Amino acid sequence: MTSRRYGRGSSPEITVDRSGPVVVARVTGEIDLATKDEFQRGIDGVLAGGPDAVVIDLSDVGFMGSLGLAVLVQANHQAQDRGMGFYLVTSSNTAIARLLEITGLTNSFQVAASVQQALRDAVDVAED
């Protein structure tokens, strides 16, 4: 397993772990106008690695505005264009789950309740 970190010393921070063909990106902090570009660079870096699937763990995100959501929508499209699985984990973060719900984007993403569930789903898809 390899690990990489984006956003050192500022918000948001993305910790990336790669185990085989799946990358898990754990995001912490807040994603808003001031941090959107940093978040974008981190997510772009994850996709650039060419994994079979990407799991974005948003469980520890304190706030996400519309610009952060736009980054995820764009990343989801890029992943689909490249044939990658793209999973969001909201876990117990009801604010992020609610954001996806009120914007009507819940069905646009593969949303998992936990990283473990997303990894199982990603491996199942990769094996098909």
Please give a handful of descriptors for the protein shown.
single chain; 128 residues; alpha/beta; Transcription Regulator spoIIAA; 6-stranded mixed sheet; 6 strands; anti-sigma factor antagonist activity
Number of strands: 6
CATH fold annotation:
Transcription Regulator spoIIAA
The CATH architecture classification is 2-Layer Sandwich
The proportion of strand residues reads 25-35%
Find the structural class using helix and strand composition: alpha/beta
CATH first level: which class?
A: Alpha Beta
CATH superfamily: STAS domain
Model regions low in confidence, pLDDT < 50 over at least 5 residues: none
Q: What's the tally of helices?
A: 4
Spatial arrangement of strands, main beta sheet: 1-2-3-4-5-6
Oligomeric state of the chains present here: single chain
Shape: globular
Radius of gyration (CA) equals 13 Å
Element-level helix/strand string? EEEHEHEHEH
Distance between the termini: 23 Å
Major sheet details: 6 strands, mixed
| Helical content band | 25-40%
Count of distinct structural domains: 1
Q: Average pLDDT across residues?
A: 88
GO molecular function, one term: anti-sigma factor antagonist activity
Family: Belongs to the anti-sigma-factor antagonist family.
Protein name: Anti-sigma factor antagonist
Organism: Actinocrispum wychmicini
